[in-house]
UniProtKB/TrEMBL annotation:
The keyword Lipid metabolism does not apply. This is 4-diphosphocytidyl-2-C-methyl-D-erythritol kinase. Its EC number is 2.7.1.148. Residues 67-143 form the GHMP kinase N-terminal domain. HAMAP family: IspE. It catalyses: 4-CDP-2-C-methyl-D-erythritol + ATP = 4-CDP-2-C-methyl-D-erythritol 2-phosphate + ADP + H(+). Transmembrane segments: none annotated. Keywords: ATP-binding, Isoprene biosynthesis, Kinase, Nucleotide-binding, Transferase. Gene3D superfamilies: 3.30.230.10, GHMP kinase, C-terminal domain. Pathway: Isoprenoid biosynthesis; isopentenyl diphosphate biosynthesis via DXP pathway; isopentenyl diphosphate from 1-deoxy-D-xylulose 5-phosphate: step 3/6. Catalyzes the phosphorylation of the position 2 hydroxy group of 4-diphosphocytidyl-2C-methyl-D-erythritol. The active site is at K12, D136.
Length: 282
């Protein structure tokens, strides 16, 4: 018997990003605030008895076996050998944009198949599987806007006012590894408390270097700065500004130069995946 699920795999913004240190293995210790958005990719899961995991829909610039959707499905311990799934991806989140698209797709796959294949895995084992696939998988598996520390995996859910964002997608890609290996990156920002973020004491520590290296991102920040404070998400390439309502965000989107694309999204506290599924048992 086959059953199916269609889910919105949400994008995220890093409302700020501080680099507070570096681990012995080279990974960076961060503080960030992950804001989930009501905008993202659509993933449809159709379970079957073929024992196979197959994917169709939007093509990515990578071989299927490297796709985090396939890797997440393969990482799950199936209850029966004949459990299979066909997954259809409708991709909207730009790749390598700092919007967490790959991590979100991986988490959505873990949560969807946990339900469709009736695996009964709780949140913690799902997160342990997830963190091996990508740094940002745990926040999407937990499914809540969150304050994060460690390498982004120590999460505290946070309730934020649901405001609107204009996200601009500059015509370039930024390699996360390249920025994290840049010798000019500052890695000694003092840890802050959540209250300090709300008082306005935050920034994105990667922004200065990324802005210097990528003129397209500098242009996008200059455009958004006409409307308020503009920031880079993750290591870029996307940048965003906050608006009190949808109409003002859409009006700014209407003024975007032809060389850039963008979208308007609402910041949400709970992932649409968690809202749509019964959720893993704790
Ligand atoms: C910076 C963030 O965008 C914040 O949301 C993410 O943590 C990055 O997530 P991502 O793009 O999925 O990154 P990954 O594919 O896990 O890591 C890419 C590379 O970035 C570097 N990296 C990543 C995360 C981290 N905390 N420290 C690092 O030094 C590592 O060299 C790693 O090999
Ligand atoms: N299903 C997928 N969707 C998007 N990217 C994927 C997927 N599977 C694998 N990847 C690869 O994962 C890498 C990271 O993609 P992702 O979209 O998460 O990056 P990002 O937007 O920069 O996110 P982050 O904020 O985590 O840095 C890309 O190099 C991409 O090729």
């Amino acid at each position: 018997m086959s059953s199916s699920l269609t889910l919105l795999s949400p994008a995220k913004l890093n409302l700020f990003l501080h680099i507070t240190g570096r681990r012995a293995d080279g990974y960076h210790q961060l503080q960030t605030l992950f804001q989930l958005l009501d905008w993202g990719d659509t993933l449809t899961f159709i379970s079957n008895n073929s024992g196979e995991i197959t994917l169709s829909g939007s093509e990515l610039d990578i071989p299927a076996e490297q796709n985090l959707i396939i890797r997440a499905a393969q990482a799950l311990p199936r209850a029966h050998r004949d459990q299979g799934v066909h997954i259809i991806l409708d991709k909207r989140i730009p790749e390598g944009g700092g919007l967490g698209g790959g991590s979100s797709n991986a988490a959505t796959t873990l949560l969807a198949l946990n339900q469709l294949w009736q695996l009964g895995l709780a949140t913690v084992p799902l997160q342990q599987l997830g963190v091996r696939l990508g740094a940002d998988v745990p926040v999407f598996t937990a499914g809540h806007t969150a304050w994060a520390e460690g390498v982004g995996d120590i999460l505290t859910p946070v309730e934020l006012a649901e405001t609107w964002y204009l996200v601009v997608v500059p015509p370039c890609h930024v390699s996360t590894a390249e920025i994290f290996s840049n010798e000019r990156l500052t890695r000694n920002t003092s840890p802050i408390k959540i209250a300090a973020f709300f008082e306005g004491h935050s920034r994105n520590d990667c922004q200065k270097i990324v802005r210097e290296l990528y003129p397209e991102i500098d242009n996008a920040l200059n455009f958004l700065e006409n409307f308020g404070e503009a920031r880079l998400t993750g290591t870029g390439a996307c940048v965003f500004a906050r608006f009190p309502d949808e109409s003002r965000a859409r009006s700014a989107l209407g003024q975007l130069p032809d060389s850039m694309t963008g979208f308007v999204a609402k910041g949400i506290n709970e992932s649409p995946v968690l809202s749509a599924l019964a959720g893993p048992k704790d």
